[in-house]
């Protein structure tokens, strides 16, 4: 579960797919590869960082993760542009206008509080 203190990866374009195979002549050709979650190559676009808050922001109409960026990858290249800034992707499971739900943020490492609860540390019952 993503909570405050967790290390996460937030993808810029999580629902992008490659174009269908041009040799596929069916009425409904299927995309060939989901590119929005690539970790390398020219379609890798994401940030990594620590969740510092979860909640609403005045300029958005849905709950957001507040992520302090520690790593920025765009087009498969390390960047510095967003490092040290906050980004606000929607909380996973938020309904979209097209009827699906958001899923562009993945957990890298749980918060240290979650770790201590799991191993019987502070606050464990």
Summarize the structure.
This protein is mainly beta and 125 residues long.
Core attributes:
single chain; 125 residues; mainly beta; 6-stranded antiparallel β-sheet; 1 helix; 6 strands; 6% helix; globular; disordered C terminus
Could you outline the blueprint of secondary structure elements for this entry?
Elements: E1 7-11, E2 46-55, E3 64-74, E4 77-79, E5 86-87, E6 105-109, H1 112-118
Antiparallel strand pairs: 1-2, 1-6, 2-3, 3-4, 3-5
Tell me what the structure shows.
- The chain is mainly beta and 125 residues long.
- It has one domain (7-17, 33-117).
- It is 6% helix and 29% strand.
- It is built from one helix and six strands.
- It has one helix at residues 112-118; strands at 7-11, 46-55, 64-74, 77-79, 86-87, 105-109.
- Strands 1, 2, 3, 4, 5 and 6 form a six-stranded antiparallel β-sheet that branches.
- A hairpin with an 8-residue loop joins strand 2 (46-55) and strand 3 (64-74).
- The chain is globular, with a radius of gyration of 17 Å.
- Residues 121-125 have low confidence and may be disordered.
């Amino acid at each position: 579960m993503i909570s405050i203190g967790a290390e996460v990866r937030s993808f810029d374009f999580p629902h992008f797919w490659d174009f269908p195979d041009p040799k596929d002549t069916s009425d409904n050709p299927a995309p060939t590869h989901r590119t929005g979650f690539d970790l390398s190559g020219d379609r890798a676009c994401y940030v990594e960082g620590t969740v510092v808050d979860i909640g609403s922001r005045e300029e958005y109409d849905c709950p957001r993760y507040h992520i302090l960026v520690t790593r920025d990858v765009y087009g498969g290249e390390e960047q510095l542009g967003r490092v040290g800034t906050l980004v606000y992707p929607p909380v996973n499971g938020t309904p979209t206008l097209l009827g699906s739900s958001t899923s562009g943020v993945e957990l890298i490492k749980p918060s240290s509080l979650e770790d201590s609860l799991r191993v019987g540390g502070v606050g464990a019952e």
